[in-house]
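hey m, so remember when u said the tokens were messed up on ur end? i reran from scratch. heres the input so u can diff it against urs
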Amino acid sequence: MRWIFLFIPFLSWGQCDMEIIGFNPISTDLTIAVNGAQCGTPADSIGEFLLALTFNPPLDDNPFPCFYDDGWALLIFPLDFPGFEIGQGPDNILQAGDTITFNLLETPWAGSGSAPCWIDIFQSGSYYEECLVMTIFQINDSGCIDGSCEGIGGFAYPDTDILNNWVIWSLNGACDPPPPPIVYGCTDIFAFNYNEFATQSDGTCVYQGCMDEAAINYCDECTVEGECEYLPEEGENCNDPQVYVANTFTPNSDGINDYWKPVTRNECWWRWECRVYNRWGTLVWVSYDPQDKWIGNRLGYFVPDGVYTWTIKASTFQSTKVIDINGNVTIFR
């Protein structure tokens, strides 16, 4: 990783307090947030947003024509273009709490003709031995190096934290990767509304399961109704005892769902054999008693998280019920 302290004097005049909070160098999705103050006035219905791009260290023979003599390529985003909304709500001003998200490769209208050059840099320059650096430079012509310029609103936009408004990346390992784009949503794979694209939990997870406390698979944290399983009423014979097998458990000693055990009427079974195998087919646990519990161990050690295969072969005392079933259980600590 190369140090970039040489860039700081150039970038020390920015605007309000804007931050790049998410960037994907492959898809080129970019998310920018305003942390403090406002970046305009109600009169700023038309303005521009400026990004700067460079290589670190600078290229000895730069093949890209959109770079200026100071070593930076600039890209202008007019804020009144279709599909690019400034701010949130009726105020139409970028201010604290606002975010804007767009794709750099899908903005051919940006940049006073420099957009094709930027696209070329992203598609080929990302594989150079040098690191690519992208930063927020200014909004509404507020980015003079000496700090004397004023924006459309009549005042400058000083950035209070210059270190959070750039990202550095390379697609060939030349430097550390940029932070992944932040996508809020439910990150629990066992939740009913799990979002496979979410990178940060927003606390909205809900769970589906049986909500009847009388059922053997009652789920006290579920809010979406699922299928319920019930044991036969007391006094009924064992001709057809049911077997319910959970598909996950969390053996982390927190007192909640710490073990795995098929749920059934234990007294009904004459022969019982339950086996658990890992992904390579190695036997990790076996039981001949339907009351036994597996705590996620093998030979005195806890097995790693993952998916395990189970089989159950059993018959009842009356020999009228014979089962040979299998499935998967996931350990998730």
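this time it looks ok to me. Helices lie at 8-11, 115-124. if urs says something different then somethings off w ur setup not the seq
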